[in-house]
Amino acid sequence: MWLEILLASALGLVIYWFFSGDKEDTLPLGDGWWGPGARPTAPEDESIRPFKVETSDEELNDLYRRIEKVRLTPPLENSRFHYGFNSSYLKKVLSYWRDEFDWRKQVAVLNKYPHFKTKIEGLDIHFIHVKPPQLPAGRTAKPLLMVHGWPGCFFEFYNIIPLLTDPKSHGLSDEHVFEVICPSIPGYGYSEASSKKGLNSVATARIFYKLMLRLGFQEFYAQGGDWGSLICTNIAQLVPSHVKGLHLNMAFVVRNFHTLTLFLGPRFRKLFGYTERDMELMSPLKEKMFYSLIRESGYMHIQCTKPDTVGACREGARAGQGEAVYIRSIQEGSQPGDPRPPPLGPRSQVTTSLRSVLELF
């Protein structure tokens, strides 16, 4: 027994030493150009332009025609959501989308807050900017950058913005009042997509940092979830002295030694401090962590490797675009091993988010 412990400890120390190099606390700021063609020699237009979400009868009629032409393959019996989005359930979603959802009303909802666009590194960046309606005497608002993820958009912050910008009117303390800036990630919603390869979270972080500077904020707070979590983390790594506070609702803390204990834990539970309950939750490791991850990440593999193929397939199929976003909501809300559509709240909220995401296509 003691020999096994010594061998496991020695192996762990060797692996830990091998993988634990010095990590960069900060990242180089750098610069970039993501617009079409070569970077112009003239200075970039730094004006901030008001923007309004609009739609037309032509766009809506085209959408309705595409929905009506959708041809769905019947699902396998009792398959539920095991093989992806169940087409029987999709019919209900499309019916609601076509006949019940009030698109024009939702356009008005989207325009509830002020929208703007500005050119940064060759891209037209969209954002909403909401200032407090009133401030206590002698107080200033705290600038807060809020970044969405995939398949979300700026709309996911609409319900919390009033609580941040006008807390007193909602029965909250006005000790902290925020001025909220919610940009759209390049290629999402109303932000222009990159014309060049290589636009990653670090480049997006730099773009949003430049946006905050352009708005006059040398210091600010940042909040992000999903991709926004990584982007906001990168902002803090790029310019730590400018980020006064960082809040993440999807945070990853993975240490190499901890990963090693996941593999050795079932055999040396007490050595690594795991309880029997820990083992129940983690075991079998390959099923509860690796198989489930692979099973629910098919979308990620094709989007990471052949995104143009997905885009071409969905160009004429709005149902496919809606399905991709809706299925992610289902996957994130379902219990492992129970692939059924969970309660998602008002379908209008999901569809309104789709409205912004679909603007990209």
List the helices and strands and how they pair.
Elements: H1 2-19, E1 48-51, H2 57-68, H3 87-100, H4 103-110, E2 115-120, E3 123-130, E4 142-147, H5 161-165, E5 178-183, H6 201-214, E6 220-224, H7 227-238, E7 243-248, H8 256-264, H9 276-282, H10 285-295, H11 298-305, H12 307-314, H13 318-333, H14 347-357
Parallel strand pairs: 4-5, 4-6, 6-7
Antiparallel strand pairs: 1-2, 2-3, 3-5
Helix pairs in contact: 1-8, 6-7
Subcellular location: Endoplasmic reticulum membrane; Microsome membrane
Domain Epoxide hydrolase N-terminal: 48-157
GO biological process, one term: epoxide metabolic process
Q: Could you explain the architecture of this structure?
A:
By secondary structure, the chain is of the alpha/beta class. It has a domain at 48-254 and 322-360: Rossmann fold (3-Layer(aba) Sandwich). It has 14 helices and seven strands. It has helices at 2-19, 57-68, 87-100, 103-110, 161-165, 201-214, 227-238, 256-264, 276-282, 285-295, 298-305, 307-314, 318-333, 347-357, and strands at residues 48-51, 115-120, 123-130, 142-147, 178-183, 220-224, 243-248. It has a seven-stranded mixed β-sheet with strand order 1-2-3-5-4-6-7. The longest helix has 18 residues, at 2-19. The radius of gyration is 24 Å and the shape is globular. The chain starts with a helix and ends with a helix. Residues 333-346 and 348-361 have low confidence and may be disordered. Residues 1-21 form the signal peptide.
